[in-house]
Specification:
Layout: H1 7-29, H2 34-50, H3 54-60, H4 94-104, E1 109-111, E2 114-118, H5 124-129, E3 141-144, E4 150-153, E5 156-161, E6 173-177
Antiparallel strand pairs: 1-2, 2-5, 3-4, 3-6
Helix pairs in contact: 1-2
Length: 182
């Protein structure tokens, strides 16, 4: 099957290729904080998605898929209260779907109304060489769990504060945070 890409499609492909190249470079040769890099990538993808039109999606064969786009609805979400206008093509709020995915994936910790995940623990050498590759820049956290046990991590990732309308009770607590490397 041969697919013909129009000028708009080629422009979109070029933007995405440049984004992937930039991310690859930064991950391999730059000491950019991975959380910051992910935030910038998501911002850039949202900017690119904002340029999409229904005709571009139809030409690309993606109409009806869950491609984030802001042209479907320009009001806040009645479920989560988000004032962001990003929705999937099927009308699902991006914020609601993000939190549904977080809550349905095991291992999430809720502390003081924010959501966290613990990544694989780095070796001391890995942590010393590249602290920015780990959550919270490799700072040490001691976390109390509901069963009374404690866990120590140098790779704690935050997904941010949970929107008030989607709040869940805390299931963990910070016991101690050692001085960080930042």
């Amino acid at each position: 099957m041969t697919t013909t890409i129009d000028t708009a499609g080629q422009h979109l492909r070029t933007k995405l290729t440049n984004l992937v190249d930039d991310v690859w470079y930064r991950l391999n040769f730059d000491d950019t904080n991975s959380s910051y890099l992910l935030e910038r990538v998501l911002d850039r993808v949202a900017e690119i998605a904002d340029t999409l039109t229904p005709s571009t999606l139809d030409a690309a064969g993606t109409a009806g898929t869950r491609t984030p786009s802001t042209y479907f609805e320009s009001v806040g979400c009645g479920d989560c209260g988000s004032t962001k206008v990003t929705r999937y093509a099927d009308g699902t709020c991006f914020t609601c779907q993000f939190w549904a995915d977080q809550f349905s994936t095991p291992g999430g910790l809720i502390i003081n109304g924010s959501h966290y995940r613990i990544g694989p623990e780095p070796t001391p050498q890995e942590l010393a060489d590249h602290p920015s590759h780990y959550g919270c820049y490799g700072d040490q956290f001691v976390i109390g769990l509901p069963d009374g046990t404690q866990t120590v991590t140098h790779n704690l990732w935050t997904q941010g504060p949970i929107p008030p309308r989607l709040s869940r009770p805390d299931n963990a607590a910070f016991i101690q945070r050692a001085g960080g490397t930042r």
